Amino acid sequence: MIRRSAASLLLGSSALWGACSLQSAHAASASDAAQIQALQHEMQEMRREMSGQINILRQRLARAEVHAPNTTAANAAQARRVAAANGQPLPASYARDIHIGGDTGTGSGIGNVLQHADLGTPPSDRGVSSSWSSFRAATEKEEALHLGGMMVGFPGGRPTISSDDGMYAMSIGLAFHEDIGGFMGMSPRRGEARGDFSSLAENARRLRIPISFRYKNWIANITPDFGNGTGDGATTLYEANLNYAGFHNTIITAGYFQPRVTEEDSESSNEFEMMERPAITDIVRNIAAGDARMSFGALHYAKRWWIAGYVTGQSYGSRGGSPEKVTGVNSYTGIADSQSGATFRVAGRPYMSRDIDVHVGLSGITAFKVAENGGSRSYTFSEGPEVNLTTTKFLSTTVGNVGSIWSAGPELGFRWKRLVLKGEYYHIGVTRGDNYGASAANRGTVNFQGYYGAANYTLFGKARSYNIKEGAFAAPGVDHAFDPAHGYWGALELSARYSVADLDSALGTPGGIRGGQQTVWSAGVNWYPNRHFRFMLDFNHIIVSRNSALYDLYGRNGNSVAGRIQAAF
User: What topology is assigned to 132-318+329-568 in CATH?
Assistant: First the structure.
């Protein structure tokens, strides 16, 4: 009995142990299955993330084809940095065949995008006109942020949104110039009327918003200007044109445009050494160029030379040459024929090295058909005192019976390390026609002239350099943005200029013209805390001789001090 009970207990215990073991094995199997399922899910997530990183790299590869290839090691290291942005490693086998431009492709790259956006020279005051390949290269250089197949970046320091391949793009810029200053020693004398010479005045000199639209090598630019002229509140158009940049280093332009003529006129206003151009430069360019001039032509540049030519018509807002509208009438006064003209400029660098640039050039401009106004063809030459805080024109004369107007002259420039010297001379000729009568006062050729010489020295920052796309000298560059805590102060330069404009011709003869002669001695200092902002301070000593207007009946000497706040994007 006892033996049977022991046997039963043994058999029961064995069965219980077997059942428990079976249950434990089943529980362990279920746990392993859950772990395997979790691992499979984690692997799927890793594959998705890795696939996303690879797609980003493939997109970058298409854009990188325009660049020289990096070494295998550099490509692998950079590709791994891209993939690691989300904490995922990238095998070297993927990285060896991938070349990218240096951005992370994720939101974490915004620091890289902005890191160098405030370094370099100021952006232009004009719309974009670079080729598609140059645009992509600039985006690579400045770095861009990728968001869902789009790029957000600052090529050339200008906010830009584009497709990932740069095929479609839109950029918006800013050229903001606010002037404040006044005149000294300009009080009226006996027998004179008081001119517009305030001791303190302000002027929104330029408030331009360049907007550019790109499709590959086709670019449309439109730039309204809310600060044009000498008085606040003036609103006009600076440019509205179509450009094609598909040919090597060539830009073809049609529409309202500023044709490039003279060295000073080829520079962006964000890069001027002084606040205003020399008087003779403005007089010459306004003959058949200047802002918002209907134009068709092209420019081409290379490392050592630059050439441009345009056929031009009227300026925006002055159809037929007369800006005056008849009150209540939807037409212009006396319009019979519009102006036609042309510009040409060629420049080169016969010698260049790390420390030296030699610039030579020649500019020409003509209005071969002057606009007819009120049954006559006449042209008014006028210019202010090289500071845009007055509406008074020291130089002003109207020439009647005009057949055509032309101007031509040489350009010279020299850079040695941080010092830049340059100058230009221009002769202006006016031929007379027969459409204004045959009086002696309207016969014979009229001749005017003018010139300037300028010097510039960069105290700190990157010195002025030669801009091959403008055929002119560019502004200083900022190597380190303003950061006093680390000893960085941006860039600082000093400028000086001597300028003469002479609108007197054949004085003492029946056909003589007395438009006056103006001489301006100028000195200035410009500080760039970064590429986007500049502060300017100019002093001008003005000497004018003329006796055909009450405000300077006996000639006038005076001075002006003015400053400018500039923002450029």
Answer: Porin (2.40.160)
